[in-house]
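$ run holo --ligand "magnesium ion" --emit tokens
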Amino acid sequence: MNPECLVIGDLNCDLIFNGLAGFPELGKEILSRDYDIVIGGSGGIFTAVLSRLGIKTSIISKVGNDNYSKFILDELQKSGADISRIIINENTKTGITVSLSYERNKSQISSLNLVKSLKADEICLKNLESIRHIHFSSYYMMDGLKPNYLNIIEKIKSAYKEITFSIDTNDDPDNVWEPSIYEIFKNVDILFLNKKEAIKISRETSVEEAINKLANYVKKVVIKLGREGYLAKINGKLYRGFCRNIDNKNFLDGTGSGDNFDAGFVFGFLKGFGIEKTLEFATYCAEKSIEYSGGFGSDEKFDEIRKVYKIN
Ligand SMILES: Nc1ncnc2c1ncn2[C@@H]1O[C@H](COP(=O)(O)OP(=O)(O)O)[C@@H](O)[C@H]1O
Ligand SMILES: [Mg+2]
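-- output --
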């Protein structure tokens, strides 16, 4: 089966500590109840989740030739993803994020030099006949690609007119939030942000003002609000959704919940679910993900999603 979706973005290993006794302090040691090593990177989680939901997804990113990349490639393959476009770099280490996961928020330390170095001329834009949708993850992380996103989109659009695009900027580690990103927004179909990102990028003070501004550039904008759900403006109409699990029952780890939301949304979009069901499905995928350590989750999670939404 050929992939239907292509991700261009970040891919790494996540080392997740959950059940932490407190916040680390210089000169002290704290204990973690448990840890997990899982597939990470917003692009990596999106790729694995969407593939496991049933839409085969390919990812263009860079990994080293080490034990971490072997693990990542293996996990991606198990999810059903296509790994043939991943660039393996012999002399640099695979990226790692350490995530200190707390119930209300998380703190992360990343070393992602290889991912950041991905350049436009390393991306092969040929043989995209089977691709219906392209997702850009973690825009601000992708230093080597930043000057060329528009060019990449234009090249793809001129050769493959039907392909649609989404972007999730994620955080800007430099805290600059340059406005040139609006030029990219004008050329994508779906924009995913969380609350902080929406406010920073729009330079507005509320999510309502932010979504109204951003919706002037992108037809489908979703602002994820953590446990508060989401605010979306889709083709001019506002949608406000809430999580079912408002008291956070079974919460284990919030890593990747936003990427599960994005993957669920793109799944509904490509399956033609209709907007209300797409938003509800995305929320369900995101809510389920917080019950598991890491972004991908387990077979049990996907069995439950399949059962509730009657997906084969
Ligand atoms: N504590 C939580 N309880 C229930 N659902 C949550 C929780 N945190 C996140 N979610 C779900 O995950 C989605 C994305 O979370 P959010 O943290 O806003 O995005 P991101 O991971 O991109 O920062 C939310 O819209 C919600 O559906
Ligand atoms: Mg996010």
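-- notes --
The radius of gyration is 18 Å.
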